[in-house]
């Protein structure tokens, strides 16, 4: 604070503080508190709001356990509330997206940090950034067009004779959603991992090579442990963004896929029940935070590591 | 006036619901404006139909001198949300929901009745504002809803590839021979009506719309049957573009879609066919906000849309059907021809009007749509 005052003077410092305060209070805290408060109240006609039936309860949160459906895994059948099922699948496929993003980002990050000629690095980074300049909606739609039944991918595969009948790419469970989410969020994994690997002293890798370590052991024992904070922060970002994405699952979803955010959206827009929708939104936030905390504990990553 | 941006409204609403008192001042500001210039009307309607603002409103203003402030919204749920805000903040006189939805609006305390003496009820075509539609426009004997245009949801058929039974039936949507595009809640209703027509339901499908216990019983059956036949669904649609893409890009051969989808595809080898069970029909119209400030102008407006000129303009804008007598002669010939191709007198007589769906019903219906999608 002292530092800021000295550097920018009282006027500019006050302006910056006010802007930050406005952003935090008006755009984050107030809407979230409103949503949080709404989530404990029942959905009532406007005329009954504030009336005797308008009391606080956990009813909206418990609705997630309504509506059981029958499912079976490996011949073992069970019943599960439909929204819990949707939630579990959302978490599972968000994890799949996170792992696949890591598998794609790690080799590239290593190449950029340690192998590529530093002079061509800016060009490489620019090339990676260009897709980020295109709106997320357009990128999702682009994939929708590519994967469409009568789209270019099928046309190409048929033209080169790889397949005879066109394939319904957009109607294979969560395939479309996973592809779209990876494409949208892979850079959020790449750059933290790149930053982490970049800070590794190349001498360590050379020393390991001199002592005869195979390449996989160098990665396993030296590069990966060093990059752990970067991987963790990349994973947290990709996982949270994927689980919270509404656009990609709505555009690239199939007839059998349902993302938890779509369920929230339905409560808002189809059922007009903003209260239950708020409760579901908080459930998603809360449980995702829990899962991330758990994963960080499992992999022994501290929050302070990520912030580094 | 129409340019009260929605973020402004939303924020005002949020602050208001937290603090309460601050809101009371807002309607007063707006009402003083409304009183000062009595020749205007604040109308909230559907987005994406530009000829309303280009042709119909200027014609209305030329005829009556009343200026329409038009706010366009993409769907009824947004309109409902906007109306809930406007009940406290003011600024809306007339909104255009569908006949099956205004009951929910009314039970939320948003509406006031029309005064039939200030309208011209004789202008409407038979069956649209009288008969069963007339009953459903009223609550406690008071008229809450007057029609503006109507349309249907029926089979859009790829004439070369779809395999239809004779006569075409809603059951064809669930046949493995066809690749279909559906919207989940309509599909479940179609399954219910199909089973009903086959005599496979324990009680009439309509019971579900008035009795929640019956609804659960009937929709459980429809859901189970629809899930069995889900393999042939290639895409869900929720709006015009998705429905169109379902056919053009994803190769659906059959769908349960709006008439406008069929109209847009009419030159690409698709036909629009009414199933033997009767096409789903919707009915769109005007409701009057409880706190409307321009009540006289609102009645003039509703009356104008029942005249041949107004009704034809409205129906042309939506590519749908007019509500006023004599309007058909003023319509675009291609629209007229398209409708006559689908609906002969028998098909018209069989039209199945979407019943009123209460808030509780819609919440439950959403749950069924969820289960259908997640299966």
Main attributes?
heterodimer, A: 308 residues, mainly alpha, MetI-like fold, two-stranded antiparallel ribbon, B: 375 residues, alpha/beta, D-Maltodextrin-Binding Protein, domain 2, 2 domains, 12-stranded mixed beta sheet, two-stranded antiparallel sheet, 15 helices, 14 strands, 17% strand, disordered N terminus
Question: What structural class should be given to the helix and strand makeup of chain A?
Answer: mainly alpha
Number of beta strands of chain A: 2
Structural class of chain B: alpha/beta
**Main β-sheet description of chain B:** 12 strands, mixed
Average pLDDT over all residues of chain A: 89
The CATH class of the largest domain in chain B is identified as Alpha Beta
Question: How is the main sheet of chain A built?
Answer: 2 strands, antiparallel
Could you please say which CATH topology of chain A applies here?
A: MetI-like fold
Unreliable spans of chain B are 1-37
Strand content of chain B: 15-25%
CATH fold annotation of the largest domain in chain B: D-Maltodextrin-Binding Protein, domain 2
| Mean pLDDT, all residues of chain B | 84
**Could you give the order of the helices and strands of chain B?**
HHEHEHEHEHEEEEHHEHEHEEHHEHHEH
**Number of domains as seen in the coordinates of chain B:** 2
CA-atom Rg of chain A in angstroms: 24 Å
* Order of H and E elements of chain A: HHEEHHHHHHHHHHH
- Give the beta-strand count of chain B: 14
Full CATH superfamily name of the largest domain in chain B: Periplasmic binding protein-like II
